[in-house]
Amino acid sequence: MITYLKIENGHFTSSQTDTSDTVWLNVEKPTEEEIDQLVTAYELPKDYITGVLDDNENSRFEGVHQNTLEEPALMLLQYPHAETSPSGYTQLNTFPFAIILTTDGKVITVINNPADFLKQLFTQPVPDSELPIQETLILYLSWQISTSYNRFLKELIQQTNKLEGELQVSTENSQLYQMMDIQKSLVYFDFAIASNLEVLNMLYTARIFRDPRAHLPRLHDILVETKQAATTTNIQLKLVDKVSDTFSAIVSNNLNNVMKILTSLTIVLTIPTIIGGIFGMNVKLPFANRADAFWWIFVITTATCIFVIRRLKKRNLL
């Protein structure tokens, strides 16, 4: 699907066709017809668009060597998106996001998976900037992608803290599955953010910008935000590894405590079974001729069980 966007009253508004006022073409899950249409209309290399169809596509920057934009340029970044994992918990994945600069001053963005920050972007005012619209959008979209990583990282930190509070009473595997999904999310983030940093650093020396110095303050903010996400990801990866090891040890220890209690109770319950079995034999036994034999046996059995229970508690076995 192709959405044509132009600027009216400081906001992006969509139109049905591509006009001279169109500044941004947002393409989601393009069909073969739409890909051919864009390639023909804007003389794009086909891999600029088809690259995002591969979810494992790496971040890259093509066309940065040009002094002026005589050919379309591509900046491909990776952005985070929340999905449901096979174990049923929220898992964060990363997908490619293509930003194509055309020779006629327009921007084409291409995605093959939902991007939450784009929906918010359409409803927000156009960023106030003296830069050309291509430079404004490429910096603004990069900023949105960078901040989305930090936003998702805060959610992961909250989930990890919540799991830590469940460590003392956990004897199930559900928390381990959730911890595994958090680890997978952080691994995806680690590689995607590192790859994005390499591409964003290329903007410092990009010749295609009319005045490179004009966008340096904004680019600095983007890099600071991205480096913050990289640092947070590395810290959380190490913490989650430690928590996961501790989590496994505590789950195992809790299970051992349960088994210890069950074993001790089995020993206590075995005493009445043994005594009952002895006095159930068809031979001559003590108390056999007494009318109150049952009560004597009951008292002896109870006293023996109480004695064993106290001994087990004294040795911390019950």
From TrEMBL:
On whether Transmembrane is a keyword of this UniProt record, the answer is: yes
Q: TM spans, by residue?
A: 261-281, 293-312
Q: Which GO CC annotations does the UniProt entry carry? A: membrane
Entry keywords, A to Z:
Membrane, Transmembrane, Transmembrane helix
Membrane topology qualifier: Multi-pass membrane protein
GO molecular function of the protein, one example? metal ion transmembrane transporter activity
Q: Name one Pfam family in it.
A: CorA
List the SUPFAM superfamilies: CorA soluble domain-like, Magnesium transport protein CorA, transmembrane region
Subcellular localization, as worded in the UniProt entry = Membrane
Indicate yes or no for the key word Secreted.
no
Q: At the top level of its lineage, which domain of life is listed?
A: Bacteria
Recorded family membership: Belongs to the CorA metal ion transporter (MIT) (TC 1.A.35) family.
Protein name per its UniProtKB record: Magnesium transporter CorA
Q: Which organism is it from?
A: Enterococcus quebecensis
